[in-house]
Design brief:
- By secondary structure, the protein is mainly alpha-helical.
- It has a domain of 51 residues.
- The chain contains 2 helices and no strands.
- The protein starts with 17 loop residues before the first helix and ends in a 9-residue tail after the last helix.
- This is SS18 N-terminal domain-containing protein.
- It comes from Mauremys mutica.
């Protein structure tokens, strides 16, 4: 199950930590690897479910980034 999936009753109550963000980035890495592997095998239908999860994760990350004040964001 995706790190991003949170039951409706808990949404907005979970704290976003650096560990959570790293787990999500690691999950996205694995999703991309699975998608590429399935595409290379010509199994596009299997890619779709992973693409949906990746899309949801990316939207979640973008939402967090948009909600984070610029003074808090790091520019390394």
């Amino acid at each position: 199950m995706s790190v991003v999936f949170v039951p409706e009753r808990l949404r907005g109550k979970a704290e976003v930590t650096p560990e959570t963000l790293q787990r999500l980035l690691d999950e996205n890495d694995q999703l991309i690897r699975c998608i590429v592997e399935y595409q290379n095998k010509g199994r596009a239908t299997e890619c779709v479910q992973y693409q949906h999860i990746l899309h949801r994760n990316l939207i979640y990350l973008a939402t967090i980034a948009d909600a984070t004040p610029a003074s808090v964001q790091k520019t390394d």
